[in-house]
């Protein structure tokens, strides 16, 4: 059974089917609390989903599940840029089968959460501080006080960057973290130095809401599978995400703005000091990642006091959307990591 709620700040829970729009942002795409399904991928049973209203009024979609038996704790899935909850259905089922409760949410500006600019397909943010604030507020406030402890994190790409910043500030928030393709640095093929010069100049000129050249307006998975795509070598899992997008196009964002790129590069700079993060960390990245730098991720992991790194062969950026063989190696590393830790 799936239930939908909106939780305005810390007010008592009330049920609604259509969250009210925030008045001063009436022209923006508002948040929607329900979960989408397609013929190729259904929402895991037992979901509770809805909308949380952040302290600045922005509405963020969430969902949570509980395992059928005693829980080992709660795994927080923290998505990458342009992701949405539905993309993680398979992973959610696998975590539930391992005895974890699962909680997740769409970052502001993407998925089922409220957009931050008038064009709902542009992925824009001026800095990553609101992401860090949202994560801390959502995890620490009483909205999810009933979820089983301890809290663990499974974070991808941009979500891993936000998680690292958050853990450096609040060491007790998560008992452990598994990071896939963490956004420590851009992949060399994206020419990070040029991207930095370009985004800095355009942002200074007041052009932060302009979209960066290239990319697809409706996101990568809105296009037919190509063997050279940036995400995965698995056409089946790519196709599942594409089916969801076809059923629920409002979940997608496409090209990031110049402002997002500028903010992302600053966020990558912000995680360079790793010494403050003492919780156990497993970092997993692929040798074929053309979005984030696997070399930078491995070097970063070496600076952490309690971390291990795994490089996956034949793996592109989306570790959890990869082929069965790649995912089997990921879950082997994940299970070993969690069996080794005394949480």
Describe the structure.
By secondary structure, the protein is an alpha/beta fold. It has a single domain (3-20, 28-340), classed as Rossmann fold, CATH 3.40.50.1820. 29% of the residues lie in helices and 16% in strands. It has a ten-stranded mixed beta sheet with strand order 2-1-3-4-6-5-7-8-9-10, sandwiched between helices. Helix 4 (192-204) crosses helix 6. The radius of gyration is 19 Å and the shape is globular. 50% of the residues are buried. Residues 70-324 form the Serine aminopeptidase S33 domain.
List its salient traits.
343 residues; alpha/beta; Rossmann fold; ten-stranded mixed β-sheet; 8 helices; 29% helix; globular; AB_hydrolase_fold; Lysophospholipase; Hydrolase_4; MAG_DAG_Lipase
> How would a textbook summarize the main sheet?
10 strands, mixed
CATH superfamily: Alpha/Beta hydrolase fold, catalytic domain
Kindly report the average pLDDT value: 89
**Oligomeric status:** single chain
Kindly report how far apart the N and C termini lie: 30 Å
User: Uncertain segments of ≥5 residues (pLDDT<50)?
Assistant: 1-24
Q: Helical element count?
A: 8
Largest beta sheet: strand ordering? 2-1-3-4-6-5-7-8-9-10
Protein name: Lysophospholipase
Organism: Alsobacter metallidurans
Pfam family, one: Hydrolase_4
Domain Serine aminopeptidase S33: 70-324
